[in-house]
Amino acid sequence: MSFRVVTTGLKFSEGPVALPNGDVLVVEIHRGTLTRVSPDGTHTIVADVGGGPNGAAIGPDGRAYIANCGGMYAFEVAGYTFAGGIPETYQGGSIQAVDLETGEVETLYTECDGLQLRGPNDIVFDAHGGFYFTDHGKSDGISADRGRIFYGKADGSSISLVAADMNQPNGIGLSPDGSRLYVSETYTARVWWWSVTAPGEIVGGQTLAGSGGGNFLYASPHMRYFDSLGVEANGNICVASMVNPGILVLSPEGELVEFVSIDTDADPGITNICWGGPDLKTAYVTAASTGKLLALDWPRPGLKLANQAVEVNA
């Protein structure tokens, strides 16, 4: 599938959010910013959020909500930039909210029931104004946290743990009707799902020893790592693939619909996807290891997310 490079020079780009005026928000993990990318490729800093902003979503109040992992080391392999480890500046993870007009940053959550947020990664809002987010955890190269999924309210009033004992959960998304929650795991290259029974309440249990109690959907037979994910309007789950770079498109039944290979200077770090444009058929993909934002003409529309304003043709 052909693509165009919208911009370059980003510092490990993640968490794209398409805005109705054609701009795209991204987070830059190694710059510690929420950044606005214009259609002409110009990028400007909306807010310096510190730490390591890893995912973003628009909330019901119009602010951008940030899953901040607290920071990671930047390191290079064969000329490509990656992220990992626990830097000396690490003070914990958080969920933040950013006013897009003023750049004001509010920290909503740093813990849940006394347990520190370790590495919040990706975030998605539901139709009730709350949000689910993954906590990928942290690793020092010898030991690693077990991953978790949380549910929080946008006003900062409550946060709850909804799943735990996972293997580095990363991407998170909801089905079009909100009845399913999907999560990708990085190093197992697996996708899991749960039934959503109420806001912040999920049920799995259909798979013996499923990660986080989830139901098994898909495992890659190839060497790749899974990063974040997005959902199409028809319910397909689109998972960003690292090492073997591209986007896997999975059906809700767990079948591989297609693999969209993306070769931009052989960047192995394809990290995320979102959709914008008047018909939601422009896919924006972050190529983090070369610091790019890409745009692709997608064959199917993406799902209109909760709180997403879409510019429509008159």
TrEMBL record:
Positions annotated to bind substrate: 121
The UniProt record lists the keyword Transferase: no
Keyword flag Translocase: no
Domain of life of the source: Bacteria
Annotated positions binding a divalent metal cation: 170, 227
Domain (SMP-30/Gluconolactonase/LRE-like region): residue spans on this chain: 12-288
InterPro entries hit by this protein: 6-blade_b-propeller_TolB-like, SGL, SMP-30, SMP-30/CGR1_Lactonase
Molecular function via GO: metal ion binding
Active-site positions on this chain: 227 (proton donor/acceptor)
Comment on bound cofactor: Binds 1 divalent metal cation per subunit.
Cofactors: Zn(2+)
Keywords: Metal-binding, Zinc
Entry-linked PANTHER family: BLR2277 PROTEIN (PTHR47572:SF5), LIPOPROTEIN-RELATED (PTHR47572)
Name recorded for this polypeptide: SMP-30/gluconolactonase/LRE family protein
